[in-house]
Amino acid sequence: MKNNLAPKRDYVSSTNACKACMPLGACIAFKGIEGCVPFLHGSQGCATYMRRYLISHFREPVDIASSALGEGEAVFGGGPNLKQGLVNVINKYQAKAVGIATTCLTETIGDNVPAIVKEFMGEAVLEGSRTEMPALIHAATPSYAATHMEGFYAAVAATVAQLAEPGPRHEGVNLLPGLISPADIRYLQAVAADFGLEATLLPDYSRPLDAPASLSYEILPQGGTPLAAIKAMGGARASLALGWTPASQDAGRDLAERCGVSLHSPGLPLGLRASDEFFAALEQISGKPTPDKHALERGRLLDSMVDGHKYLSGKRAVVYGEQDLVIGLSAFLAEIGITPVLCASGGRAVGFGEKISEFCEGLTRQAPRVEAGIDFYRIAELSRELKPDIIVGHSKGYNMARELGAPLVRVGFPIHDRIGGQRVRLLGYQGAQELYDRLVNALLAKKQDDSDVGYGYL
Amino acid sequence: MSQVIFAEREDQIYEKGGDKPFRISCDKQSLAGAVSQRACVFCGSRVVLYPIADALHLIHGPIGCASYTWDIRGALSSGPELHRYSFSTDLGETDVIFGGESKLTRALDELIPLHKPKAAFVYSTCMVGLIGDDISAVCKMAQRRHGIPVIPVMSEGFKGNKRAGYYAACAAMFRLVGTGDTTGIPPMSVNLLGDFNLAGEIWIIRKYLERMGVSVVANITGDGRVADVQRAHGAALNLVQCSGSTMELAKMMQETHGIPFKRVSYLGVDDMAQALYDVAEFFESEEAMAKARELVRGELSEIYPRLMELRKDLEGKRAALYVGGAFKAFSLIKSFRLLGMKVVLAGSQTGTQEDYEELAEICEPGTVIVDDANPLELMTYLIEKDVDVFVGGVKERPIAHKLGIGFVDHNHERKLALEGFVGMLNFAEEVHATALSPVWRFTPRKARPRLEALS
């Protein structure tokens, strides 16, 4: 298998990035911890920009505090502002936890956040009836080091490293997915429950970032992984780290090394084969066969894949987004007969191309072109050459899709131009089914709209 | 109520009425740990310069600042659309250690020939301010190599608040003003400052002025062009909207080029009409004044019947507004009055002392006035004042929605023209669309009392 495209062209600058920065991912992860307020140690703009970016996707209030550093602090250190900010957040939000993420500003001036936090714990005076200091979690997320995906994993790993303790063994399992939708979080929890497993899913922003209409504004949204459950993760019987990239395994590896919790790495359960791996891991851990309900869902998925196979045969897709997601999407596309001709990400995690090749080997007619560390300017250039039939990714590819006249199936994060980004489901047989129907229907709609006849049966 | 107000912020909130004399503190750095709705210096510069459509806007720093501002606003262009790209030097770990100057140089050398902009703005971000890149020197050399203005924008995020960013943007633009040829500019000519052509708004205003016989030299910055800014000093008058963002430029142009300025607002029928009359008056042209009157009469008679229809449904409803600049708040209060609605909360991110004094004056007793609010305060007042419609930006929308309160977008991401007479009608339709939706009958805040009354 080979592709005969123009050689890689390297740009020094970035035009229309296919990534966001590390602290953004950390904020999403911290939103998934019970009673936790994400707190950016940096200048005020970061928090405001990221809130706006997240709000436009989740369509939920997203409060992110900031130490709001000014010029003086940038010179003399941000410690005092960080401490004052913590006092304010703890007292006004009655936060049970504060998730502190650094930014390029505070990483560059070299603030020693762990030391400042330690100092703060010793000297802070709590207001009113509060007697217990909230959990103060700190993650190093220098914006320039990697993407929002790595920032997400860094926050999860920091949470586990700082809160989970080797403790009494219990029957529960740890589920460590990456940046997935609230709807997919709910799905994973339901699957674990169907296997009779008591699961601690970290982070769980399924309610904080997809909350019901309420009578009053919840200062601290309900939901999130309970702090007690995080503490007990060290005593679980197993962890499942659901991602392909190295960083996705960090928290699970820490639990294995420090607390002896066995680590299973079935990958992100997106598509048929990856979902099979996930269910196999659950079978192994629980000692129970896959419940009928899920076996049936798998059967229906396969049935639909047969029903729709000719609509997809020979179709070509451009796929982009976070690397874990792109690997999963490419694998599924290959399974259903669509060739992912370009698999692209702004991230640079290792193993990206290898994993995609492995999944596509033997299924696709040509080897996908895999591009890491790429931006949308270059993705669009390559796509003009590749002429895809369909584009799969988040909403930032819309202009390219519009130019190329190819349907865009919106998945992942962010989705800023449609409603329901928080409810998009991709995982397991159910998620694969939904995605499958959307992919086929997008192509059918295109065919129908483009035809002069206006067929009523397709 | 007081529970959610930070003690440090008490002097940034004022409730009109009673015997408390007016005082409000603004221009304070946002409080650490409070979730401010404000942004940073970079944000201020970026929003002001962004609509200049034939310039290259290169953000020098790690990727975040560029990602979060990619095609973020509805600032339309009638021609080139370079402003809709998000250019960044995407600094990485090695750049932090060795400096970003060489990457910036190479980025400019790559992007300028590729996109052929008429000028380039290079935005400095937090990290650049710390690693000590001399971006002025890099820009100067690039300017020499490429033969276009390459202008550094000193917008390091931490060096003040959003208003400092406005200042940096004005300073950057001022380097262009006065470098172009002004021949052929008629005596009755203006520059439009502080209008960003959201949803084509500046085109509406330009048409009004043209009908009065007034020419527009430069749009600053909506549908803006580098060459127009360069010859902006040839105009007789600067019309300054959105007072915060471009007032500094108007002052600089007055000082250096002797061009007077007038503060105007194109929002709401009163302020829109007043702006046109002010222009005619300035030029002492009876003809222009007559045309302005005719225009206002014509436009008003077109929208009035529908406005009054909408008013019937909206009469007595309560509104809250939280906007970027306080000047916009004045027009909105008047607009709500025209619709028979009462403003019970008015706030801004960047108002000045004078702004707030004026705001307090035109508000009714009981209205809460707030500078640099946070979600906790906003939600408390929204409930306390039993608000029906909240006007704000993207960050305020989910607060309103979660509480079951109607919402109207009035920030830089809007896709609907709200300026001019037609804009007033659009605004009224928006308010009506949200306030009269049946969903509020089912959301918990309103549904519960109804259910209780039934049982």
Structural summary, described in words:
The complex is a heterodimer of chains A (458) and B (455). Chain A is an alpha/beta fold and 458 residues long. Chain A folds into two domains: 22-213 and 220-268, Rossmann fold; 308-450, 3-Layer(aba) Sandwich (Rossmann fold), CATH 3.40.50. Chain A is built from 17 helices and 14 strands. Chain A has a five-stranded parallel β-sheet, with helices on both faces. Chain A has a four-stranded parallel β-sheet with strand order 3-2-4-5, with helices on both faces. In chain A, α16 links the parallel β13 and β14 (408-410). Mean pLDDT of chain A is 94; it is low at 1-7. By secondary structure, chain B is α/β, with parallel strands linked by helices. Chain B is built from 18 helices and 14 strands. Chain B has helices at residues 41-49, 64-67, 93-98, 101-115, 126-131, 135-146, 162-174, 201-211, 226-230, 243-257, 269-282, 286-314, 326-338, 353-362, 375-384, 397-402, 420-435, 444-454, and strands at residues 13-15, 55-60, 87-88, 119-124, 150-153, 189-195, 215-221, 237-240, 261-263, 318-323, 342-348, 368-371, 389-392, 406-409. Chain B starts with 12 loop residues before the first strand and ends with a helix. The relative contact order of chain B is 0.12. The chains are: A alpha/beta (458), B alpha/beta (455). At the A-B interface, β1, α2, β3, α3 and α4 of A face α1, α2, β3, α3 and α4 of B.
How do the strands and helices of this protein lay out in sequence?
The complex is a heterodimer of chains A (458) and B (455).
Chain A (H helix, E strand, L loop, with lengths): L13 E2 L6 H10 L4 E6 L2 H15 L6 E2 L4 H6 L2 H15 L3 E6 L1 H6 L3 H11 L11 E5 L8 H16 L9 E5 L4 H13 L4 E3 L25 H5 L6 E5 L7 H10 L2 E3 L7 H15 L5 H21 L3 E5 L2 H13 L3 E6 L7 H9 L8 E3 L4 H11 L3 E4 L4 H7 L3 E3 L17 H23 L8
Parallel strand pairs in A: 2-3, 2-4, 4-5, 6-7, 6-8, 8-9, 10-11, 10-13, 11-12, 13-14
Chain B lengths: L12 E3 L25 H9 L5 E6 L3 H4 L19 E2 L4 H6 L2 H15 L3 E6 L1 H6 L3 H12 L3 E4 L8 H13 L14 E7 L5 H11 L3 E7 L4 H5 L6 E4 L2 H15 L3 E3 L5 H14 L3 H29 L3 E6 L2 H13 L3 E7 L4 H10 L5 E4 L3 H10 L4 E4 L4 H6 L3 E4 L10 H16 L8 H11 L1
Parallel strand pairs in B: 2-3, 2-4, 4-5, 6-7, 6-8, 8-9, 10-11, 10-13, 11-12, 13-14
Antiparallel strand pairs in B: 1-12
